[in-house]
């Protein structure tokens, strides 16, 4: 790869760009915490997938990514630099492709990726994330209840050596239990 044209000012400015704990990310976390939600920060939701989510709700299997408008090509606010245009177009398109791949890998593992743009108000984003987490938690609870009910229907009690249907008494017709 050939060396890119750049100035010391540009290099200095780009090196100061934060990748973690940006203002919008911190504001979103504060809003989520204030609403009573608890989560992990900067975690890998799926082992073996080298992608880190900004906010992770483990049991609900929700991974939140706060995407910068420039770096991820926001449809509303993306700008295309004129200097080193080919490099930046490839970089931003590569970020978009990686985002799609990350979402697909998480979905394959049973996770839901939620994307929040940096221009979205943190309070609105927090409401949207909270709704998704609540829905996923409710779905998880419903699945657990269904599994428990299915196990209870299969495991029938044994009374006097006779297996009965759950909730019924054994037959008194002189069978093996009437002795």
What does this structure look like?
The chain has 179 residues and is α+β, with helices and mostly antiparallel strands. Helix content is 43%, strand content 14%. The protein has four helices and six strands, in the order H-H-E-E-E-H-E-H-E-E. Strands 1-2-3-4 form a four-stranded mixed beta sheet, sandwiched between helices. Strands 5-6 form a two-stranded antiparallel ribbon. Strand 2 and strand 3 form a beta hairpin. The longest helix is centred in the C-terminal third of the chain and has 33 residues. The model has no long low-confidence stretch (mean pLDDT 85).
How would you summarize what this structure contains?
With 179 residues, the chain is α+β, with helices and mostly antiparallel strands. The protein has helices spanning 8-15, 23-34, 85-108, 122-154, and strands spanning 40-43, 53-57, 62-67, 112-117, 158-159, 162-163. The strands form two sheets. The protein has a four-stranded mixed beta sheet, sandwiched between helices. The protein has a two-stranded antiparallel ribbon with strand order 5-6.
């Amino acid at each position: 790869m050939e060396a890119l044209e750049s100035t010391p000012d540009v290099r200095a400015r780009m090196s100061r760009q934060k990748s973690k704990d940006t203002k919008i990310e911190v504001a979103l976390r504060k809003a989520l915490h204030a609403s009573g939600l608890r989560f992990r920060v900067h975690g890998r939701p799926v082992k073996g997938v080298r992608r880190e989510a900004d906010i992770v709700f483990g049991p609900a299997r929700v991974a939140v990514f706060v995407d910068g408008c420039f770096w991820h090509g926001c449809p509303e606010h993306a700008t295309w630099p004129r200097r080193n245009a080919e490099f930046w177009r490839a970089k931003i398109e590569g970020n978009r492709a990686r985002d799609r791949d990350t979402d697909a890998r998480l979905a394959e593992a049973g996770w839901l990726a939620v994307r929040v743009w940096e221009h979205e108000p943190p309070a609105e984003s927090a409401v949207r994330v909270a709704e998704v987490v609540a829905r996923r938690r409710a779905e998880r609870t419903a699945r657990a209840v269904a599994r428990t009910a299915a196990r209870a229907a299969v495991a029938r009690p044994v009374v006097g050596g006779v297996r009965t249907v759950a909730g019924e008494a054994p037959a008194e017709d002189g069978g093996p239990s009437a002795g």
